[in-house]
Amino acid sequence: MTGEFGKFIEKKRKELGKTLRGLATELDIAPAYMSDIEKGHRYPPDKEKLDLIVTILALSKEETDLMFDLAAREKENSVSPDLPEYIMGNEKARVALRIARDNNASEETWQKVIDLLEAEDQGQ
User: What are the residue ranges spanned by the domains of the chain?
Assistant: First the structure.
């Protein structure tokens, strides 16, 4: 574990002036467990608790995506908790990811995909 997830949560919590005990209470977890998470001694909580953290800490979209990525990085061979349902519910996404993996898609290639998706999103 890198502990980056816990550091991020602690920073955001303190920015809002929330105590560790207060956040733990809002999440319905033990303060000791919350402390262990912030210190990087425990894995991040499940998706349900992560979604609650987003609300409690009023995270922006970018901060939410970062938090999910940090949570995934704490576990080996893990995907950001906001993605599995989408990936497993979309056959084309799985096909695209496998092709990208098999072709060892470059950052440049992925940027083109991102640009295409963003252009499509703006066109709607």
Answer: 4-82, 90-122
SS (H, E, C) 47-110: HHHHHHHHHHCCCCHHHHHHHHHHHHHCCCCCCCCCCHHHHHCCHHHHHHHHHHHHCCCCHHHH
Mean pLDDT of all residues in 60-79: 92
pTM of the predicted model over 0.70:
yes
Which whole number is the average pLDDT over 41-45? 94
CA distance 66 to 82: 11
What does the pLDDT look like over 88-101, one tens digit per residue? 999 999 999 999 99
The topology (CATH level 3) of 4-82 is 434 Repressor (Amino-terminal Domain) (1.10.260)
